[in-house]
Design brief:
Length: 232
């Protein structure tokens, strides 16, 4: 036990530093972009066909693209997506993705967006239609109804599942090690290869992950409490 405590004192600062330099920024950037992809995808899939024939045809194409995007990223493993983007695309002369950070953020954000879009779509559909009708009766446009009536309520409903997506993304960033990003799991592997304390190092990195996810869970609790006060 004393040996494990000594290892914790020696290596936990390095693991937390890796979390601050790599894991947390990767999580924040990927989740932020993922939310943008999710909201756009959800709104496209929920849009009603306009009266204009050409606009309706264009929207139909957009819906098909959005549905294919969601299907693709929900049907394939995240690690396979990372390998395709980081190793496969540069091999196909798309050198932009030879950068590990660009590849990781691209894959994590698109993957998160695919799952979160279904969460947002379900949250929007859960808002009673009578409230949309009330907004329209007050002279609001469709976009104003979505912006001021539907989306605020949908945001409150979607907080728990989106928080789960954020926590999952934080843990999934450990897969960035397979494309050479030295986040904290990769660092723990390097240290374990040097000191041969494999179990102890993996326990230490698990403790760091548990600490970070606990902070996110506490934040989720307070955010739910804050937004729920408007529903009373």
């Amino acid at each position: 036990m004393s040996e494990f405590f000594e290892l914790a004192v020696k290596y936990l600062p390095s693991l937390f530093q890796a979390a601050l330099q790599y894991t947390i920024p990767l999580t924040i950037m990927s989740f932020s972009l993922g939310l943008v992809f999710a909201l756009v995808t959800a709104l496209i899939r929920l849009s009603q066909p306009p009266k204009n024939e050409w606009a309706a045809a264009f929207l139909k194409i957009l819906k098909g693209v959005a549905a294919f995007y969601v299907w693709t990223f929900r049907s394939t493993p995240l690690i396979v997506q990372l390998f395709i983007v980081f190793y496969g695309l540069p091999n196909a002369h798309i050198s932009f993705f030879a950068n590990a950070w660009i590849s990781a953020i691209t894959v994590f954000s698109l993957n998160t967006g695919a799952y979160a879009s279904e969460t947002i779509r379900a949250a929007i559909l859960s808002v009673p239609y009578v409230q949309k009708e009330a907004g329209l009766s007050l002279g609001m446009s469709n976009w104003e109804v979505y912006l001021y009536v539907v989306l605020p309520q949908a945001a409150r409903i979607s907080i728990p599942p989106l928080s789960n997506s954020l926590i999952s993304l934080l843990k999934d960033t450990s897969l960035a090690s397979v494309i050479t990003i030295v986040e904290m799991f990769y660092l723990s592997q390097q240290i374990a290869a040097q000191n041969y304390r494999i179990l102890s190092m993996y326990i230490l990195v698990a403790i760091v992950y548990a600490f970070l996810t606990s902070i996110l869970s506490i934040g989720q609790h307070y955010l739910e409490a804050y937004t729920s006060r408007f529903a009373q």
